[in-house]
Amino acid sequence: MNASNDFDMIVIGSGPSGRRAAVQAAKIGKSVLVVEKGRRVGGVSVHTGTIPSKTLRETVLNLSGWRERGFYGRSYRVKQNISAGDLMARLHKTLDHEVEVLEHQFSRNGVSTAIGSGRFLSPHEIEVTGETGESRIYNAGHVLIACGTRPFRPDYVPFNGINVFDSDEIIELPKLPRSLAVIGAGVIGVEYATIFSALDVSVTLIEPRNTFLDFIDKELIDEFMHELRDRNVALRLGAAVETIKVNDAGKVVTALADGRMVTTDMLLFAAGRVGATDTLNLEAVGIKTDHRGRIVVEANTMQTSVPHIYAAGDVIGFPSLASTSMEQGRVAACHAFGLQPPPPPEFFPYGIYSVPEISTVGMTEEEVRKREIPYECGIARFRETSRGHIMGLNNGMMKMIFSTKSRRLLGVHIVGEGATELIHIGQAVLNLKGTIDYFIENTFNYPTLAEAYKIAGLDAWNRMARP
């Protein structure tokens, strides 16, 4: 550990991009300090975002018996009376383990940590102020801003931590509601709406736009919406929120622009996030942010407008994935110290941990049409596979898109159980520029859901004109 106040690199934030950058720099012999304003390392990803929401999802699916309902009926439950305490017990155990792994990783790589809020005093000076008000000034040759984001909290939403929550607060909910309104049908809103729906909570999903998750293939979204409606999730699309009030009975009343009133026990506001950059004193170094507090960087180097200051992760905006954030952090550390990392692969997967999961890689059918590429699609439904029968799956589908000219795979889109795991086969074939022949000729384990690749491949092959 570095006992002085001088470091080769200071990393502000210990989320996916921050930790990866810190370890990468340390592995090439550089002195690194990670500044974390939370009480423990891990950042938003570990404490309020990625890990908590996915842990909550897994706990809900296990305790509710969701995966077995295809056999035993919709009323089946592993635990009849599920409480908020049941959900929190597994959550805290998982988070403790994640933090311990990260602390050990920092320790064995010689990465120093400072708990407190960091702010720039000058381009190379960072002041870190602890909870009790004490401060210390550190110097660094390079700085990585990896502070992440926080929920957008508009004034018209009466957040109270009792029955009106943002997406950071919802993981500490005091009790399970019988009804829930979710405002914002983005990734976070959709994930929480479907997780609570799996607990048989009556959910209303509100989105001012007429569509949602527009980067996902439309046919997949149609399938997803059909399943949500089948589970009695109320979709209120194209309806802006006018007012939100808590009435005398303790109910949350949401008035929509179309005249509808949505009355629920609880409300989750999940319409956007903003960069947590307002406390960094970026004015001291001449770095500007957009209206959502995000920082613009060079795509290949992660450099900001100040060459020795980098930014990575959610604070730079799209795609805001833990997986891509890790790679951005590594790229920033490599560039800072003169290493040339290999170019990133052309295609990376996008995973939405809703119930059911959605995962996609490559081009959607809409994008293929826009680029006027001759194409054909193949569809496989999970109920067509023997593993699907064994698991009792009634829903779930895979869609594959191929070029009819080159026969190359253009995109894979999956909704259903295990989608975020299954997608990696399609990702590998895409990045290796594989064709439909791989899926036709390859042998997959039997019985597996991965057989859907062969079924969808054969479906597309049967539709393609052949000499």
UniProtKB/TrEMBL annotation:
Cofactor field:
FAD
The record's keywords, sorted A to Z, are: Cytoplasm, FAD, Flavoprotein, NAD, NADP, Nucleotide-binding, Oxidoreductase
Record-annotated FAD/NAD(P)-binding domain positions: 7-329
Query: What are its E.C. numbers?
Result: 1.6.1.1
- Mainly localized where? cytoplasm
Provide the GO biological process annotations.
2-oxoglutarate metabolic process
**UniProt-recorded name of the protein:** Soluble pyridine nucleotide transhydrogenase
